[in-house]
Task: inverse folding
């Protein structure tokens, strides 16, 4: 079994002096949710997600060697400039600093370089769509490209596995944004190769019903969340329903694996909607308790249920840690569903905004030099 130690860089290669890369990485939407973690970003339960295609972060990493070729120069600091959409962004720096600190033991060459990190999102700023998953995934890909320069014999499998491992240390769910269309993160007895340390592509033949699955994100509330995911995860420690919740997630993952193989959309809807409501139920039953849904979140859910009852179109909703609603549906119901969204849901969006996305395949290299 792969352990943390396997990800420690221990080559004696000469450090290259300068270069740069550019990667994009998408957001993802969990079907079985990760909510609750142990030390070092180890999930309390396994999760599974669809990778998105259009909601992405695009990050350029430029690097210049600072001084000696000796790894991990003591007492030195991380050195980086951070640009968001081309302009310096000081308030993002502490997050990156923390990320570098967490991954330093695995990437001891980081302190030998000065970095220029230039990042942008394809989705509107502060749309309420979390950019931490795509952002950390895109940065992790760039760092692995640098590491591959230092260790050209690295296999592709290791490259993507360590990228997911590093992304996880930045933001847990980011490890599911590296590679593949349906990604599992967390040990699960029925999923070969699954690990708490990194995401793996679901190793099953997925039914045609789930190819090109659509996700239209209804932007209900674009404000800052009142409670961050980090605080929410921590509140699962000592949560009165934690034990049952973590065991339910294992069962739901077994069930959804079967469903993704056999194409049963009715069963898919049951698991996905129940997972979304359970996630929010955990928030409402934490101490302190909190609510991230807004009145319009519930209006939209009710509209989706009525529309599904009337038309038998197999659309469903899921939620992440916020008020926005993800409407999930098979590609062959795209026209009817988009019409329904325009007619019945747009009135509940902030400024009438929604984003049409669909399943994608993970990070992409844009430039290397
Ligand atoms: O990766 P984090 O710490 O932002 O947590 C994400 C948690 C959920 O989006 C609510 C669920 C999930 O599995 O993505």
Result:
């Amino acid at each position: 079994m792969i352990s943390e130690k396997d990800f420690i860089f221990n080559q004696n290669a000469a450090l290259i002096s300068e270069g740069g890369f550019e990667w994009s990485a998408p957001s993802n939407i969990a079907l079985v949710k990760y909510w609750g973690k142990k030390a070092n970003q180890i999930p309390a339960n396994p999760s599974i997600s669809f990778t998105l295609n259009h909601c992405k972060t695009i990050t350029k990493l430029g690097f210049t060697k600072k001084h000696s070729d000796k790894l991990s120069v003591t007492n030195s600091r991380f050195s980086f400039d951070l640009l968001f959409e081309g302009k310096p962004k000081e308030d993002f720096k502490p997050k990156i600093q923390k990320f570098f600190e967490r991954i330093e033991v695995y990437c001891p060459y980081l302190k030998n370089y000065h970095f220029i990190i230039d990042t942008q999102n394809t989705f509107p700023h502060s749309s309420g769509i979390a950019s931490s998953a795509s952002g950390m995934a895109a940065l992790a890909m760039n760092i692995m490209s640098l590491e591959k320069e230092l260790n050209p014999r690295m296999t592709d499998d290791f490259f993507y596995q360590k990228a997911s491992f590093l992304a996880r240390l930045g933001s847990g769910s980011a490890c599911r944004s590296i590679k593949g269309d349906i990604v599992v993160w967390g040990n699960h007895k029925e999923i070969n190769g699954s690990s708490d340390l990194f995401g793996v592509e679901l190793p099953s033949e997925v039914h045609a019903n789930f190819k090109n699955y659509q996700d239209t994100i209804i932007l209900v509330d674009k404000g800052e969340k009142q409670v961050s995911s980090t605080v929410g995860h921590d509140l699962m420690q000592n949560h009165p329903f934690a034990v049952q919740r973590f065991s339910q997630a294992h069962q739901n993952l077994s069930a959804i694996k079967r469903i993704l193989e056999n194409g049963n959309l009715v069963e898919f809807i049951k698991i996905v909607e129940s997972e979304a409501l359970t996630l929010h139920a955990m928030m409402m039953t934490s101490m302190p308790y909190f609510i991230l849904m807004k009145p319009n979140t519930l209006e939209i859910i009710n509209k989706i249920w009525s529309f599904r009852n009337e038309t038998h179109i197999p659309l469903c909703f899921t939620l992440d840690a916020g008020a926005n609603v993800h409407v999930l549906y098979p590609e062959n119901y795209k026209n009817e569903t988009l019409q329904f969204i325009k007619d019945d849901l747009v009135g509940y969006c902030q400024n009438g905004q929604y984003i049409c996305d669909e399943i994608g395949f993970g990070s992409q290299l844009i430039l290397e030099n």
Q: What stands out?
A: The chain has two domains: 4-205+361-367, 214-358. The mean pLDDT is 95.
